[in-house]
Design brief:
single chain, alpha/beta, Rossmann fold, six-stranded parallel β-sheet, 15% strand, binds adenosine-5'-triphosphate
């Protein structure tokens, strides 16, 4: 069977259980060989993160730990240019070859913003897209993505196994209304975000004094 690798890119400012639980469920549901979390160095779509790239990477590494079935891929942090997802997928393809099935995992909010991404129409030539529900976001899907869903979405994940890229699959994972924005807001106001993210990540935030006003 062709190798299958899932990719969850994000700012991870900080990483939380909404990311981690979704990642595990995608990996199991799609029977992936690996699921890599890919912290973004210079997010092109948003404000400067509250934690540095190194700190966000450290938090993702702490969250993933050893042996939990998730990996960390730091390729976007090693690049000088803005971290466009297309560049990341091209670099993965160059390394892994054309036979491996790649699954780019996006929350619903990120998926709805896809038309603003650099050369977004080319992404499906390099990977499948897996869309996660996001219970804390009520975003309307743009018309152009309705067309994409009509043309490219599949209901049966087995169909994704036959090709290395090109389909969209909407996955109903356990809905967790957790966001990094909410966690940063809690810390800034002196409230506890405990149980929304791993203890090791919270300890790191407290030790480094992150997200305080
Ligand atoms: P912020 O609140 O700072 O925007 P975030 O919580 O959305 O951050 P990101 O690092 O921006 O986290 O998200 C990375 C990816 O994970 C995106 O595709 C996003 O949609 C998805 N994601 C984040 N949180 C969840 C969640 N609770 N459930 C499902 N997907 C999520």
């Amino acid at each position: 069977m062709r190798k299958r690798i899932g990719l969850l890119g994000g700012t991870f400012d900080p990483v939380h259980f909404g990311h981690l639980r979704s990642a595990i469920e995608v990996r199991e549901r799609l029977q992936l060989d690996e699921l890599r979390l890919i912290p973004s160095a210079r997010p092109p779509h948003r404000e400067v993160p509250g934690a540095s790239a190194d700190q966000r990477l450290a938090m993702v590494q702490l969250a993933v730990g050893k042996g939990g079935g998730l990996q960390v891929d730091d390729r976007e942090l090693c690049r000088e240019k803005p971290s466009y997802t297309l560049d990341t997928l091209e670099s993965l393809r160059a390394e892994l070859g054309s036979e491996v099935a790649l699954f780019m995992v996006l929350g619903w909010d990120a998926f709805c913003g896809l038309p603003s991404w650099h050369r977004w129409q080319e992404l499906l030539g390099l990977a499948h897209i897996v869309v996660l529900q996001r219970p804390d976001y009520d975003v309307d899907v743009p018309e152009v993505l309705k067309d994409l869903l009509a043309a490219r979405s599949v209901d049966d994940p087995q169909r994704l196994a036959n090709v290395s890229a090109g389909h969209v699959f909407c996955l109903s994972q356990t809905p967790l209304a957790i966001s990094a924005t909410h966690i940063r807001g809690l810390v800034a106001s002196g409230a506890s975000p405990r149980f929304l993210l791993p203890d090791a990540v919270l300890d790191y935030i407290e030790t480094k004094g992150l997200y305080r006003p």
